Amino acid sequence: MDKMYKENNLSKNQQIIFDLINKSSEPLKAYTILFSVQKKGIKAPPQVYRALDKLVETGKIHKIESKNAFVACRNSNCEISKATAFSICESCEMVDEINDAKLTKYLTSFSDKKGTKYKRFNLEFFGLCKKCK
Amino acid sequence: MDKMYKENNLSKNQQIIFDLINKSSEPLKAYTILFSVQKKGIKAPPQVYRALDKLVETGKIHKIESKNAFVACRNSNCEISKATAFSICESCEMVDEINDAKLTKYLTSFSDKKGTKYKRFNLEFFGLCKKCK
DNA sequence: TTACATAATGTTATATTATAACAATTTAAA
DNA sequence: TTTAAATTGTTATAATATAACATTATGTAA
User: CATH: 1.20.1110.10, 1.10.10.10, 3.40.50.1000, 1.10.3720.10. Which one for B12-127?
Assistant: First the structure.
């Protein structure tokens, strides 16, 4: 049978779900995604979670842990999600990815009191966004 | 009736659940806690979640967002959980609270490109702990 | 002390988030 | 072209968390 996808490295379900997240202005939850893509034939949670897992793994999206929700990566510098930072508005729930070279460098090179370095971090800032202030 | 608690500022359920988390060497999940405290009369999820919420609110414990689990605060400097940082071992799942004044100061005073400052942050580092390395 | 507001508790049911397990198909590539 | 790996489809269920409501305990102020 003809190949069903090839233009890029995403599979059909991955592409559908990435597109949805990518054009969203806010973090999307797994079941919100599920309901949105049912018309496209994605009918069950495992299909969504598998695509999300892969997209996270490849750095195309990030999971906002404090919200159990997903955003598209806006930052070519966070190679495969080793170093992620977000600002989260406590009022409107808006999430922005922070792309700050100095911050990344500071945290990437951080070592704790025992001298241990870490290969990955996730940082979530909370406050009020410009609109809500 | 006689007052049931007063030695400190925690209620009965809060104290039971705090004690359990405080003496644990690893993060505890809500349902693990629930099973552990059923013999003490705490029988339903809302009782656990309410105590956890209050303990988080007052800074006695922290939630490890990437694990949906809770640890006791080991750091008198993270006043009411405004500035939390943890190291998480990807192999043995061990979690340590990081208490590093420079790090805290750096992140507390961080402002993004638009000049926005944040009133709270949570940082999770991932890597291998000393034992697992 | 009594009366009142607030906080905490107990309880049932249910909502939300996530994975296990297995069969089938598609893809890449040897 | 046949084989391994990745992806998909599907059903069921596990794990995490909250809604809603009734009751009791606690702190405080009249």
Answer: 1.10.10.10
